[in-house]
Amino acid sequence: MDAVGQKLLLVINPVSGKKLGRQYSKMIIDNFSQAGFVVTCIFTTANENAYDMTLKRGAEFDLVVCVGGDGTLKETVCAVMELGNDMPIGYIPMGSTNDFAHSVGIPDKVEKSVQAIIDGEPRPVDMGRFGDNVFVYVAGFGNYTAISYSASQKLKNIFGKNAYYLQAVKEFFHMKGYHARIEADGEFFEGDYFYGEASNSYSVGGIPILHNIGVRFDDGYHELVLIKMFRTPKELASMFRSLFKKDVRGNDLVITRQCKNIRFMFDEPTAFTLDGEFGGDQTDISVNTVANAVRIITKDPLPVEDVPSDSGDGANETVK
């Protein structure tokens, strides 16, 4: 970016992840200032989160950079979308898994993520609407969706994404099927599902289930993933093999589609997670893609996966 004279709003969540935002703040400010940005730094509080602060101050600035986890990024994105001024967003990830950052190529290391913003360019990225709410990369239901917000922060700080796996082991014997009806761009599905999601990411909770199905971040589509409920140990083992291989194509338990409008319908209230936080109990909820909703600053162009031509028996064919 052309940094000289650009007014940068730096929003730091000091309690995200391992609570290192305040510790790194001087280095972040110094590096941006040396690059030519005019930096104003503010810290979120219990009473004012990144959404509140960006909405209140954002119109005064040329770009906003948020420091924190997925929740901080989501708050910042929501504020920029509401401001409607197409202000570029930089992201310095300090969460436990940083799924979205990994997917779009934002570095984990603070110094590298700062430099990537200095050297990078704003690139359009799709967002999702979940009813009246906005989400950055995933809206999901079913087994394990509660893990991201039920795993303790202490475990996340110590073990990172492995905290989610530990929580998953605890919940393994409580698995059940969720009966759902789904409409996806005019196509209908109904069954008992182990898990379902609308997403725009290569991984969720550190589990890389979405590689090799044609994920793109600016194509105006979300990936619908439905995993049918296991009936036998053999089916369960086959699902885990697919996950470890980072390729669910050819697995009869998995349905994938790429679509703009999805409607989830349930017989009883069903819990969702939005970007790792509780998204409420839903019986009938619509998910819509907001194409190129915001511009995220990345050093390299956004990754592109071609839609595979080999789609197995058709159960997990990706279509647009």
Task: From the structure above, extract its key features.
27% helix, four-stranded parallel β-sheet, 9 helices, alpha+beta, Rossmann fold, 320 residues, nine-stranded antiparallel β-sheet, 2 domains, single chain, Tumour Suppressor Smad4
Description:
The protein is of the alpha+beta class and 320 residues long. The protein folds into 2 domains: 7-95, 3-Layer(aba) Sandwich (Rossmann fold); 133-291, Tumour Suppressor Smad4. Helices cover 27% and strands 34% of the residues. Strands 5, 6, 7, 8, 9, 10, 11, 12 and 13 form a 9-stranded antiparallel beta sheet that branches. Strands 2-1-3-4 form a 4-stranded parallel beta sheet, with helices on both faces. β12 (261-274) and β13 (277-298) form a beta hairpin. α2 (50-57) packs parallel to α3. It starts with 6 loop residues before the first strand and ends in a 22-residue tail after the last strand. The model is unreliable at 147-169 and 310-314 (pLDDT under 50).
